[in-house]
Amino acid sequence: MWYIGSPPELLASISGHAASQLIPDIEQAIADYPYPDTYEAWPGPNSNTFVAWVIRRVPGLDVNLPNTAIGKDYLGNDYLAQTPSGVGYQLSAGGYFGILAGVREGLELNVLGLSLGVDPRHLAIKLPGIGSLGLLNPWPQISPAP
Known about the structure:
Distance between the termini: 22 Å
Strand order of the largest sheet: 1-2-3-4-5-6-7
Number of helices: 2
Shape: globular
Number of domains: 1
Pfam families: DUF3750 (PF12570)
């Protein structure tokens, strides 16, 4: 997820009744997205900005975006927001510089779209361009492929 044209990654899977309960909120978040006709690969808004927007606005989408998702920290004209997981906060200066602290995300320093940080919950460090290196799976909702 860290370079233009990379294939999408599955970070969460919700199905059945739980999914049907989320659909109206997802549709509303999509309709409310403030940048439907704007795309900037860096610092945003881009496809990762869109995903982070939807996750922030839909209770029940308990997803932690990887630190390699450039654009996830773009907040537009806002400087302070909840983290996409909703259990922390982030401060961002147009996606160029920022800091994020959350229960699911850990602590991240964002500089020019690159994130460096620690994730104590998953015993991991987050490195720019590499992602999270740790002992525990940060996306437990997804089973590893056989």
